[in-house]
Amino acid sequence: MSLSPTSGASSETAGPRRRRFTRRKASRPGQGRGRTVRRISLVLFFLLAQLLFLSSHLFRLQEVEVRGNVRLTRAAILRQAALSEGTFLWALSPRRITKRLQGLREVRSVEVSLALPGRVLLEVDERHPVLLVSGNRGTWFEVDAEGILLGPPSGPQTLPRLKLVTLEATQGRIDPTPIRLVLKAKQWLEPNLPAPPTAYMLDEIRSLSVESRLLGTPVLIHVGPLQGMEYKMHVLRA
Question: Are residues 118 and 148 part of one domain?
Fold first, then answer.
């Protein structure tokens, strides 16, 4: 019995396989340099466009709006803010503007906003006087609840008056404790006095007295410390 050979050549008798080679394209001289130049040109064009945009009139200061001022004039606020027309908005520092405006004793806080085109908004929160205060010299000053002296009163005043033995101020500020005591006592006393008080007085130990009138005659009421005010008001009403 004979076996016939299988069709096809075996791996041993097969001829050598053909290898395919891919030829890389040779880069032309200066081609890489040209790409680099184009990239640099695009970057420079972008930067130039940004510079022209930021230098346009949209970013130059044209208008300053002031809100919230009552005691301070617009001119005083602008002078303290030191804003010059035509200044670039991106050259302004809201933090520095705020710090300059808080140099005004009438300013409690301020919010600075920048907007396009060329606009700055200053929202001012002013201090408001709650008392007139004086020392042994008899000169009256407006003062807010935090003890900031706001200067002499302007025009007729209906604010309560507080007389201190001495008026000691540090950088335009006095101790706010007597102010809080008087404002608290005012709520207790004024509804129970025969006439509105003309002045409150605090001595060295912060004992309170009140100047008022009874049938047109000046009277001085010694209240003492604020402890036990309910009992003292009962005695006063009796």
Answer: no
d(CA 38, CA 218): 93
The CATH number linked to 156 is 3.40.50
Can you tell me the distance from the alpha carbon of 68 to that of 148, in angstroms, rounded to the nearest whole number?
A: 19
**Does 107 lie in the same domain as 63?**
yes
Tokens at 156, concatenated: 């007729």
Q: What is the pLDDT of residues 25-40, one digit of tens each?
A: 555 555 566 677 667 7
pTM for this entry: 0.69
Q: Work out whether strand 63-67 and strand 161-164 pair parallel, antiparallel, or are unpaired.
A: unpaired
The Cα–Cα gap between 132 and 162 comes to: 6
121 and 142 co-located in one domain: no
Each residue of 125-134: pLDDT tens digit? 999 999 999 9
Sheet holding 141-143, edge to edge: 149-151, 141-143, 131-134, 161-164, 199-202, 208-214, 217-224
Backbone angles phi, psi at 219, to 5 degrees: -130, 150
The CATH number assigned to the domain holding 119 equals 3.10.20.310
Contact of 162 with 202, CB cutoff 8 Å: yes
| Residue 49 to residue 53: CA distance in whole angstroms | 6
- Give the percent of the chain with pLDDT over 90: 45
Tokens for 123? 């929202």
